[in-house]
Amino acid sequence: MHQDQRPPSRKRLVRLCLNGRWREDAVPDHLLLVNYLRETVGLTGTKTGCDGGECGACMVLVDSVPMPACITLAVRCEGRSIETIEGLSSGGSLHRLQRAFHEQLGTQCGFCTPGMIMSAAALLRRNARPTDGEIREALAGNLCRCTGYVKIVESVRAAVDDAP
Amino acid sequence: MTAAAGAFRVVEPADVAAATAAHAGEPGSRYLGGGTDLLVNLRRGLGTPALLIDLRGIAELDGLACMAGGARIGAGVTLARIAADPEFRARYPALCEAAAAVAGPAHRNVATVAGNLCLDTRCIYYNQSEWWRGANAYCLKYRGDVCHVAPQGRHCHAAFCGDLAPALLVLGASIEVAGRAGRRRMPLAELYRDDGLAHLTLAADELLVAAELPADPPPSAYAKLRVRGSVDFPLAGVAVALRAEEGRLSILRVALTGTNSRPFLLDGTDNLLGRPLDATVLRHLDRLVQKQVHPMRTTLLQSNYRRVAAAALARHLAARLAATPEAAR
Amino acid sequence: MNGTVASRDWPRPGVPLIDGIDKVTGHARFTADLDPCGALVGRIFRSPVSHGDIVRLDVSRARDLEGVVAVVTGDDCPRTYGVLPVAMNEHPLACGKVRYRGEPVAAVAAVDAETAERALALIELEMRELPAHYTADSARAAGAALVHDDRPGNLERAVHHVFGDPEAGFAAADLVREVRIDCAEVNHAQIEPHAALADYDPATGQLTMQSVSQVTFYLHMMLAHCLQMDESRIRVIKPFVGGGFGARVEVLNFEIVTALLARAAQGKVLMQLTREENFLTHRARPQTAIRLRLGMRRDGRMTACECEVVQRGGAYAGYGIVTILYAGALLHGLYAIPAVKYDGYRIYTNLPPCGAMRGHGGVNTRHAFEVLLDRMARELELDPFAVRRMNLLSAPTRTLNELLVNSYGLPECLDRVERASGWRERIGRLPRGRGIGMACSHYVSGAAKPIHRTGEPHAVVNLKLDWDGGVTALTGAPDIGQGSSTMIAITVAETLDLPLERIRVIAADSAITPKDNGAYSSRITFMVGNAAIDAAQRLKDILSEVAARKLGVRREDVYTAAGMFLARGSDATAVSFEEVAKAALVGEGTLTIKGTFTCPPESQGGKHKGGAVGATMGFSYVAQVVEASVDEDTGQVTVHQVWAAIDCGHAINPLAVTGQVEGAVWMGMGQALSEETCYLDGLPAHASLLEYRVPTIIESPPIDVQIVESHDPLGPFGAKEASEGALASFAPALVAAVANAIGIDLDELPATPDRVVEALIARRRRARLKSAQESAP
Ligand SMILES: Cc1cc2nc3c(=O)[nH]c(=O)nc-3n(C[C@H](O)[C@H](O)[C@H](O)COP(=O)(O)OP(=O)(O)OC[C@H]3O[C@@H](n4cnc5c(N)ncnc54)[C@H](O)[C@@H]3O)c2cc1C
Ligand code: SF4
Ligand code: FES
Ligand code: FES
Fold this sequence. Notes:
The structure holds three protein chains of three kinds. By secondary structure, chain A is α+β, with helices and mostly antiparallel strands. Chain A is built from five helices and five strands.
C-alpha cells in the first residue's frame, strides 16, 4: 500500500487505572470497554454472554460502580478506575466473595461468575450488611443459567457474614 | 469479538452550546447519554452516525434539585441517583418508582433521564440484528417500506417504552430544550407525537437540558407490567397521581407508556373529579384506559393482554393511592 | 452397589468444585478466552430465506476483499453429518438447498471482525424460494412442500408402541379423562455463547480443535468424517465450558465450519457466535402437542394410559428420533401402569433444528401426565399425594417396556416434600390467589445402549501414579460446569482413602484422555464414576500388595485409612501412601491403570423397535411441591417457594447434588413461566436474552432440596443421576398450584401473564354463557 493511501488514525490515547495500575492505550473511539479489556489488554475474565446489555456477564466496576462493559465505550473511561475480576484478589488471597462463591457452589460452569461477583463486590462496598432482598436487587441484571441463583444468594450471604 | 457499534467518533463538549455546535458540524450525529439504548441499537446496525456527542461532561445537565418552588432534574442525571434521592422519593414517588424499575441496576448507574425520555420506540421487527431485518426486507421505521405489524397502513406503531415519562406526565413536568436556535420550554407531553417513526418533536440538533416539576405534587405511584421481575421493558406502564378532598377526587391524572408510540396522559379523567373513588369510577377508569391505549403486535405478548392489564394496573394504583392518608385533605 | 464408601449418611456438606477457584478468579479459560495470537476471525453467512433452492452462490467478491484469507461453501464439504448414524442428513454449509432461515451457507475467515463482516456483505446468494412450513400441522397437511425429499408427509419418525391391554384398562376404569397440552419450544440459553478455535498446521496436516462441546469424541469423529481426514491427525481439546444443558450434545455446524475455514486458510480461526446465532443453532426442546388419556379407578389406581405426541422438529434430524422415542418410553418407569399406548410423530419443519435439552424427551409428556393426574385426583376428591402413592412401583422390577428399576426412592421423596411443605396442614387452607401443587418426575442415569455400537466399554478411566505421589485421573468426560471432574476426583479419593487434593483430573483432550461418549443423558456419574472406581480399586489392589510386602503382612490384612496403609490387628504398623507409591514404582516406573464400566445387558432395554431409548441402569426420582400466587388482574404468577426431594441413589457430593437440583428445578420454572421461542415467518423474534426470558434472580424462589438415598445396586457407591430429573416436575406442580390458587386449569406452557389472563377471560365468558343459558326459558 502506498504511503498516501494510509487511512488517517482513528485512535486516541486513553489513560485509565485498571485494577490499581495506570495505563495508557491507543484505542478507536468506538471500541467497547469489553473488547478493550479482552483484546487490547488481554484480560479475559470479563465475559460476553449476549449481543448487548442483556446478561451482565461483562460487568466491571467503573469508579466502584458496576457497568456492563459491552455497552460502555473505552474512551469514556478516561481518567477513571476500572476493576475487573482479575483485580479482585490481592496478595495471593481470594476476595471473600470469591472464596464464598467457590465454597458455597455459587459458581457451576463459571461463565456468569466474574460478572456476578463484580456486581456483588460493588454492593458490599456500599452496603456492608445487605439483606437478602438487597442482594437480589443488586444482582438483578446478572443472568445465571446453572444455579437457579439459590447458592449465589447463599454465597453473597456467606461473604457478608465473613466480613472482617 | 463482540460486534462493534459502528465506526463513529466521539466528542465531549464542555457545555450545551458546544454540544449543539458539534451537532451542526455533523448533522447526522447523535447525542449520547448513558448509551444503554443508543449503543445497543448501534450494535444492531440501527443507525450509522459518524459522530456521537457525549453529554456527560456538561455540568449544567448534571443538576438535581428539589426546591420550594419545584424541582429541576438535569437531563444527564442518572436513574440510580433519582431513585435513591430521599427528597424526590418523598415528594415524587412515582418518578422514583419508575426510575428504579428501569432495566437492571447496572444500567441505571449510567442511564440518564434524557436518554430515557428520548428512548427510541420499540418493536419486535425493529429491535433485531441487521441480518434479521435484512432477511425480512427491513421495515418502514428503518430502511424498508412496509410495516410488518400493520402491513396495509403507512404508519409505524413501534411502542414507546420508557418508564419515566408517564411518571413525569402525571406530576405535571415541563422540559427545557436547547438547540442552535436557542432554548425553549414546553410541557413534557409536547415532546411526543404518536408516530413510531418520529415520536419526538425535537429538531435534529435539539437536546434536552432539564425537566422541571411543580411544587406540591399530589401523591403518585408507578407500576409496570413485565414478565420478569427485572430487566424487562414495560409491556405497559402506568403512573397515577391522585388527590381527594373530603372523599371526593380533586386530582386524578393517569399516564401510560409501552402501549402507544408515545407516552400520554389519559384523557377524560377530569370527568371523574368530584366523585368518590368507588367501583363505578374505577370501572370508568378501566374503560378510559382500554379505549385510549393502542397496543399493537410489537411485543411477543398479546396486545389484548397489554390493553386489559394496563387498565387493571391503573385501577390498582388509583385504589391504592386513594387509600393512603396523603391522598386525602 | 459398586465400590465401597465410608458410610457417611446425608446430611454431609460435600466439597467445592476442584476447578472452582479458576472460575471465581477469572483465570478459567473458556473457548473465547483462548490465545487468539495469529487467529483469523471466522464469520458465517446465513440464509435469509426459510426454504429454497440455491440458484447461485457467488463468493468471489468476498474472496477478493483485502484481508479475507478463506471463504468456504457447501462445495467444501459434500458430506452430510449428524449425531445418529441412521439420520445424518445435515450439511455444515447448505448444499443446493436451505431449509431454515439462518442456516449456514458460506463462511469467511478474515484478519479482523470488521473485514469478515464486510466480506459477508459481498456474498451474493440467489434463491428459488419454496413454500415453507412453520407448524407441524401445516407440514403434515396433504400437498405440503417436503423439507427432505425422502420423508413423505415431512414425517421424520413415527413411533407406535403398545404395552399391556389399554382397551381393557380403560374399560376397567371408573374415570377416564383426556387432556390436550401444548408446550412451547424452549432453548438452553447457556450463558456462554458458542465458540470454536481451530488450528490447522499445513506442514504436518494436523488439526487441533478447541470447542464448547459436550461431546468431544463425536466432534472428533465428525471432523474426520466431514474434512475427510485421518482421525489420528485430529486433536480435540475441551477448554472450560460455560454450560450446555444439551445445546452441545451433538456436533454443531459452526464447529465443522470453523475447521473447514482453518484448513482452507491453512491456519488458526476463532469463531464466536452471537447470541442470535446461538438461537439459530438451537437444538433444544421442541414445541410439543400432546393428547393424553388416563383411566383411573375410584381409589386413584391407574388402569391405562394413552398418549399421542407431535413434536415440531425443525429442519434436520439431529437427535429427533431419540427425542420422540424418549417421549413415549418415559411414560414408564415412574409409576406402575398396567397398559400404555404411545403414538409419537416427529415432524420436519422449516425452522432451526431441535435437539436434546435437559430432561431430553421426557419433560413435556411428563408435564401433561402429571397435570392430568392432578385434575383427575381433584375430580375424584383424592389427595394428589395419595394418588401417587396408589401407583408406586416396587423395586427391583422391570417396567412394561422392559426398563430396569433396581432402586426406587419415590415413596420417601413423597414423604419428605409432603412434610417439608406442610402440605397436609396447608392444602385447601390458603387464601384465594395463593396455592400449592405437587408433581413427580424421573430421569435416566445414562443411556445404557450407546449410539455407536463399537463393542467398547461404556466408559474408561485411566489413572496415572507417578513419582510425585499424585494420582492423575484421565477421562474423556467433558466437565461443562456440572462438576463431573470433581465427581471423578471424589470417587478416586474415596476409593483410595486419599485427601481430594492428591487427585488431579484431566478431562477431554483426545491426545491424552481415553475416549468418552460425552456429557449427555446424565451418564457420567453412573458410567464414568463406576469406571473411575474400578480403576482406583485396581490401583489400590496393586498398592495394597506393595504395602503388604513393606508391612510384612498378608495382602488380605492390609487396609487403608486417611492416606495410610495399615495392617489389621496391629495398629502400630502403617506406611504412608507416598512411601507405598514410591515402592510401587521400583522396577515398574510410572503406573497407568485402566478402569472400565460396561452397562449390563439387562439394562439395555427391550427388543422392540426403539427399545434402546429410555433403557438405563437406574432412574432418579423426584417429588416436588410448588407454592405460588396469581394476580388475577395482571395474570402475574409469583413462585414463593419450592420443595424438591430427589432420590439420586447416593450423593457422591451433596453440595453438587443440591446445586444440580436447584438448577434443574429453576430451569423447569423458566419453561413453566416465561421462556418460549417465537418465530415470525421463520425468523426468531426471541433471539436475545431480552426477548427470551431466562428468569432473573428477582423472580427466582428459594428451593428446599432434600436428598433421598436409595443405594442403587449398580451405581457408583450406589449413586444415580441428579441433574435432570427435577426439571420435569416443576411445570406440572406449578400448574397445579395455579389451579389450587384461582381454579384455572392451564393447558399451555409457559404460563405467561397473557395466557393466564386469557384463561380467566375465557372462564368469565363461559360463566356468562352458562348463566345466560340457565336463565333462558
Ligand atoms: C437489557 C435492557 C433493558 C432495558 N429495560 C428498560 C426498561 O425496563 N425501561 C426503560 O425505560 N428502559 C429500558 N432500557 C433502555 C435504557 O436503558 C433506558 O431507557 C435508559 O434510561 C436510556 O438512557 P441512556 O442515558 O442510557 O440513553 P442513551 O442510550 O444515551 O440515549 C437514548 C436516546 O436518547 C438520546 N438522548 C440522550 N440524551 C439526550 C439529550 N440530552 N437530549 C436529547 N436526546 C438525548 C440519544 O441520542 C438516544 O437516541 C433497557 C435497556 C437494556 C439494554
Ligand atoms: S411497527 Fe411496523 S414500521 Fe414500526 S418498527 Fe414495527 S414493523 Fe417496523
Ligand atoms: S455481555 Fe454485556 S450484558 Fe451481556
Ligand atoms: S454458573 Fe453457569 S451461568 Fe452461572
